[in-house]
């Protein structure tokens, strides 16, 4: 350890000062004496110097030693200890988690240290409490958002929440489905609806603005909050009719009577094209029917009135009778046509919902047990049947029938079963056990039960079981088992269309359908170059190709792409599209990309697929691993598709070489290994795009550590990277 | 006499009765099976009254009515629209097109004959 200079000074200085003081005293004494006296003193003392001088020096040395000890102690307590205390206190001021101050030194220092310690402890407590509150608050916010997102994904309507300028903050699966139906592209949908995209790609700005103005006027008038939603109908580019209900998003009023400005809006969207078509078809059918019936009636009435004339010749009489016969035949066949058409079906359609058959059986089982107290066995039930039902009234009807069965028979041992009935219908059977012999004569109260008004404890309703079943376009009857004659009620019910039932299962399990941070994001139409990477939207993509040489005829066979918004990878918004290269796929590549010629048959060609990708990318930044390779393929198609891919580009290979210049490999696997990301589904275009996105998201903070924050900085750095000589 | 009445309707079953009725009244009856034929007959034969159906192949009854009213030389032609188009909007259109009377099918032959007599009086 280096000797402390100040400690040395503090130790030696008192001894030296004493010596100087003594010598000075002697010199002063001598100067005060006359020459004679000085000589006498000198003469008297000089002989003593040799014999007793040591004694004087020893006396001084003892004094110097004592002074050194005292100086050392004083230095330690009044210089070193306070300095140490100050140092620890400084550390503590910086970092609340630092160790407490040592309580040592003099009593005043101890007091000081203890006081600082208690202050620090109090601050630690406050900080912890603050952190806990923040954590709680953000937890509950996150929870509310998750609940909202979950709720919306369950909603039967297409819902989308937008900021005032139309950027999408939240949407649900139905909305995605709707946009898929409306998309003009083969594999479309995702290029229209996505976080941060504009809703105006789907719904015109005009009607939305008009509705917003209406809403604002109503708010300004102070009318009822419930009346703030505005409705409008609009057509899409593809010719669909959308009925839209717009509700404003407002920050909560700070004071009563305060009307804060709108921050966004919620849209409920319904595609009413099919409804309108059905309705107008029905209207025109009805009109045609009315008019042709009028014409027939007129012909018959006129002919009848002629027949009443007394002076008719027989051949005239025959002519008018023929008119009546003819018209009666015409009306009859018209009625037959009507019965065969779907017109009547459309008119009586009750609003029905799709429901999984096994769910319906389980719900009916619970309801019967609750209503009758009798056990019910859920027998043979196919669990892949989707029904189109009004579940509440249907279950009530079944429970009512079951209640009647339980009233008539002791220990009925009821059972339920659901089986397909062929075509678009299913049988839901409610059966019970009847003693041998008694099965032949069932009480009349049971046979009539279908036509009686449903009357369950407390919920009497004027509708009968038959009414309910007829709403479903179904039937109900009392059947008997062929083999043992046991009775059952059979409900004939409609199945849901197959495609509708499976649509809901396509969405990712935890959808990333919302991003409220976009509320706060400033749009700033300035250059993207000044924007920090963490705030930009990216489209990360990859392609699989027949080979490495686009100029030599190699073609894209698969495009995968995924978006990153506000630093989050949106797995729900992606493109995974096979492309028909319209040429052979070399055998050599098949083991790598796993795409066989049969898989691309019937897929869109690159000219059909690129517009979707182009729209999907929009004005975001394109990101790829060794993006130059993919861009060469895209650029070669510009002339044929008329689409220019002139978005800013970033390459994860280059960015990785900036972050880790000394690493030998910058393959996707190597980077992913270094950054600790898992690679799954590699060597499909979407799998690679997702892996690249994972890597890219992790590279952003590492770049920031090197002072590379904005897009412009990243592009400049990429340009000077050792790998940047690759051109496309 | 020599009062000419044109029956323009594409339904033979109603034409049979109308023709019989009009002849019984002593009018000279002409029959047209579609709109174009009707317009030609009106220009050629100058009937005093036209019983005009609304729905006909080719020109509809409304079109025929408008064409007749657009032609000053035919201003004496009385038009009775006799049609199965019974909505209020249809009646308004028929009257707007220049029909003197609008009768919705089915009708009572006695009332119709009375109306025809009044219009020709």
Write up this protein.
By secondary structure, chain A is an alpha+beta fold. Chain A folds into 5 domains: 3-94, no CATH class; 143-272, Beta-Lactamase (2-Layer Sandwich); 276-345, Helix Hairpins (Orthogonal Bundle), CATH 1.10.287; 353-504, Heat Shock Protein 90; 526-719, 2-Layer Sandwich (Nucleotidyltransferase, domain 5), CATH 3.30.420.10. Chain A is built from 23 helices and 19 strands. In chain A, a hairpin with a 6-residue loop joins β13 and β14. Chain B has 121 residues and is of the alpha/beta class. Chain B has one domain (4-120): Rossmann fold (3-Layer(aba) Sandwich), CATH 3.40.50. Chain B has 5 helices and 5 strands; from the N terminus they run βαβαβαβαβα. Chain B has helices at 12-25, 35-45, 61-70, 88-96, 109-120, and strands at residues 4-8, 28-32, 49-52, 78-83, 101-104. In chain B, strands 2-1-3-4-5 form a 5-stranded parallel sheet, sandwiched between helices. The A-B interface holds A 287, 290-295, 297-303, 305-306, 309, 316, 319-320, 323, 326-327 and B 11, 13-14, 16-18, 20-21, 24, 55, 84-87, 104-110.
């Amino acid at each position: 350890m280096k000797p402390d200079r100040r400690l040395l000074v503090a130790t030696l200085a008192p001894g030296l000062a004493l010596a100087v003081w003594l010598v000075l005293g002697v010199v002063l004494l001598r100067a005060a004496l006359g020459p004679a006296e000085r000589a006498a003193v000198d003469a008297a003392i000089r002989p003593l110097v040799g014999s007793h001088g040591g004694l004087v020096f020893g006396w001084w040395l003892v004094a110097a030693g004592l002074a050194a000890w005292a100086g050392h102690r004083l230095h330690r307590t009044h210089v070193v200890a306070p300095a140490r205390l100050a140092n620890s206190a400084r550390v503590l001021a910086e970092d609340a988690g630092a160790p407490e101050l040592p309580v040592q030194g003099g009593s005043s220092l101890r007091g000081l240290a203890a006081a600082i310690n208690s202050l620090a402890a109090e601050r630690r407590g406050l900080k912890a409490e603050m952190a806990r509150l923040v954590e709680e608050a953000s937890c509950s916010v996150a929870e509310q958002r998750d609940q909202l997102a979950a709720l919306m994904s369950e909603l039967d309507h297409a819902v989308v929440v937008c900021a005032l300028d139309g950027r999408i903050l939240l949407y649900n699966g139905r909305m995605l489905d709707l946009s898929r139906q409306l998309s003009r592209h083969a594999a479309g949908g995702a290029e229209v609806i996505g976080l941060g995209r504009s809703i105006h790609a789907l719904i015109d700005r005009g009607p939305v603005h008009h509705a917003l103005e209406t809403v604002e006027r109503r708010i300004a008038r102070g009318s009822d909050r419930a009346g703030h939603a505005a409705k409008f109908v609009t057509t899409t580019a593809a010719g669909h009719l959308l009925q839209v209900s717009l509700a404003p998003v407002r920050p909560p009023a700070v004071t009563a009577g305060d009307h804060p400005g709108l921050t966004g809006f919620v849209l409920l969207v319904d595609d009413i094209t099919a409804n309108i078509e059905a309705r107008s078809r029905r209207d025109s059918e009805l009109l045609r029917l009315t008019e042709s019936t009028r014409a027939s009636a007129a012909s018959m009435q006129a002919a009848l009135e002629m027949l009443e004339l007394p002076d008719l010749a027989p051949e005239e009489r025959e002519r008018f009778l023929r008119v009546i016969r003819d018209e009666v035949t015409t009306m009859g066949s018209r009625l037959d046509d009507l019965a065969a058409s779907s017109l009547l079906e459309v008119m009586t359609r009750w609003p029905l919902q799709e429901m999984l058959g096994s769910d319906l059986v389980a719900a009916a089982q619970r309801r019967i047990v609750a209503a009758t107290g009798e056990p019910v066995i859920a027998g043979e039930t196919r669990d892949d049947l989707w029904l189109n039902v009004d579940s509440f009234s249907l279950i009530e009807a079944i429970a009512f029938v079951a209640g009647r069965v339980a009233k008539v028979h002791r220990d009925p041992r009821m059972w339920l079963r659901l089986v397909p009935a062929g075509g678009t219908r299913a049988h839901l059977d409610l059966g019970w056990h009847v003693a041998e012999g008694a099965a032949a004569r069932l009480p009349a109260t049971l046979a009539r039960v279908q036509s009686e008004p449903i009357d369950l404890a407390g919920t009497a309703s004027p509708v009968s079981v038959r009414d309910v079943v007829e709403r479903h376009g179904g039937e109900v009857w009392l059947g008997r088992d062929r083999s043992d004659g046991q009775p059952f009620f059979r409900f004939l019910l409609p199945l849901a269309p197959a495609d509708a039932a499976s649509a809901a299962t396509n969405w990712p399990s935890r959808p990333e359908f919302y991003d409220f941070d976009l509320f706060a994001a400033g749009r700033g139409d300035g250059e993207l170059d000044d924007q920090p990477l963490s705030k930009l939207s990216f489209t990360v993509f990859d392609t699989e190709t027949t080979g490495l040489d686009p100029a030599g005829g190699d073609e894209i066979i698969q495009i995968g792409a995924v978006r990153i918004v506000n630093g989050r990878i949106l797995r729900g918004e992606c493109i995974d599209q096979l492309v028909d290269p319209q040429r052979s796929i070399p055998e050599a590549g098949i083991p790598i990309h796993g795409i066989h010629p049969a898989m691309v048959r019937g897929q869109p060609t690159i000219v059909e697929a690129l517009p979707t990708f182009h729209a999907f990318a929009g004005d975001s930044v394109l990101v790829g691993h060794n993006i130059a390779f993919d861009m060469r393929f895209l650029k070669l198609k510009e002339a044929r598709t008329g689409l220019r891919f002139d978005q800013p580009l970033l390459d994860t290979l280059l960015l990785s070489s900036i972050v880790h210049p000394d690493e030998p490999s910058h393959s996707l696997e190597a980077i992913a290994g270094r950054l600790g990301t898992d690679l799954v589904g590699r060597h499909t275009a979407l799998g690679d795009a997702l892996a690249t996105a994972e890597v890219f998201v992790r590279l952003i903070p590492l770049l920031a550590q090197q002072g590379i924050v904005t897009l412009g900085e990243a592009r400049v750095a990429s340009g000077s990277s050792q790998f940047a000589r690759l051109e496309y | 006499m020599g009062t000419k009445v044109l029956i323009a309707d594409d339904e033979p079953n109603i034409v049979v009765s109308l023709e019989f009725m009009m002849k019984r009244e002593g009018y000279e009856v002409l029959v047209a099976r579609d709109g174009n034929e009707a317009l030609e007959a009106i220009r050629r034969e100058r009937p005093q009254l036209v019983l005009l159906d609304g729905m006909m192949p080719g020109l509809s009854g409304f079109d025929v009515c408008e064409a007749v009213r657009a032609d000053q030389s035919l201003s004496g032609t009385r038009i009775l629209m006799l049609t199965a188009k019974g909505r209020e909007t249809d009646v308004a259109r028929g009257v707007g097109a220049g029909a003197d009377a609008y009768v919705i099918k089915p009708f009572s032959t006695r009332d119709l004959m009375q109306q025809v007599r009044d219009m020709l009086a």
